[in-house]
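Would you be willing to look carefully at the protein I have copied below?

:::
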Amino acid sequence: MVDAEWQKGQSESCLTVGVLADPVAMPVLIGDQLAQDLPQLLTDQVDSEQAWDAQVLRERLPPSDSRHTAMMELAETKMAEYGWDMVVCVTDLPMRSGKRAIMADMNSERRVVVVSLPAFGAMALRRRVGAVATQLVADIHLPGTPQEGSAQHQRRRLPVLAGRFRRQTPDQAGVDARISSSWGNARLLLGMVRANRPWRLVWSLTGPLVGAFAFSAFYLLNATVWEMATMLSAWRLVLAVVGALTVMTGWLIVYHQLWEPARNRPRIEREQAVLFNATTVLTLGLGVAFLYVGLFAVNAGASLVLLSPDILQSYVAGQVSAGTYLLIPLLVTAAGTVAGAIGSGFESEDSVRNAAFSLRERERREAFRRKHERRQESLEGDGAGF
């Protein structure tokens, strides 16, 4: 854990920005990077005469209302405790306003900025988060918050934010400035998938992995598979690969009940369920794709070692070439991936959720389910009473 370390001999004219990072993978990484980048960004782009410092502290950030009340109260407590001048909270909790994904909100009175990572998407997080945090810290440091479109606002707007993000002053108590994404839910979805780190699925689910390896070894030594791989047309092979990935992904979702029903829910909850389901499909789809690529690499290496051209020539049509050693592992891996879906049946629902979703994502889904269950129980109770 990265603790805040304070320099006792620091000049009183130096302003310190505290970075509170949620103690989970992506916020920790971005929080550490932000603490490194902020002093130089603020010096170069905001106020070259002012000395800046930034310190990072890992702290579990609570879910909050639309004004981020609980999170900002925690930030104020840490600000007083460590002597910070302002605070930037970095969390992977998604924030939305209508159809727009919120990247960051700022409260000038509390001197707190809340940054939500999912709205930044999946690319160039360090640069984009740094630009947004710098913009809002500048709004706290400089008196007054300029209105969107005004000359003062244009002077303060950092070039990296032009055209991609929208800075506005929302008509909402407790939020003096907001930066939202022009891509809305698409960027939010990509950010949530990245936070889940789908590549972890390869090593986290031992059942599918062992099943896929075992069946791949069997198919790799099967002469019928060799013949099929070299005789099938290109579109049939592509269809086999896509079908294998689809079967594995669909099996994980259905068998382990990862699909959130959207029917008979209020509109806001339906939108949440759709977002959760899209995140599930993309996370597991990418995770299975990573599994396929890794398994293909192993099978390709094994085919080079075990299958000599003389042996293959006896079974396959045409001349044995480098393409033969790609086509066979391609079909073998597809068959092994489908067999790996059977192995996922030995995994518990909790283990699949732990492998597929980040800690905060699991907490959000569990809270979402409990809320729906309480509503259903309430409706059933009202019906029984009637």
Residues 69 and 102 are 16 Å apart (CA to CA). Strands lie at 15-21, 52-58, 86-91, 96-97, 100-107, 112-116, 165-168, 177-181.
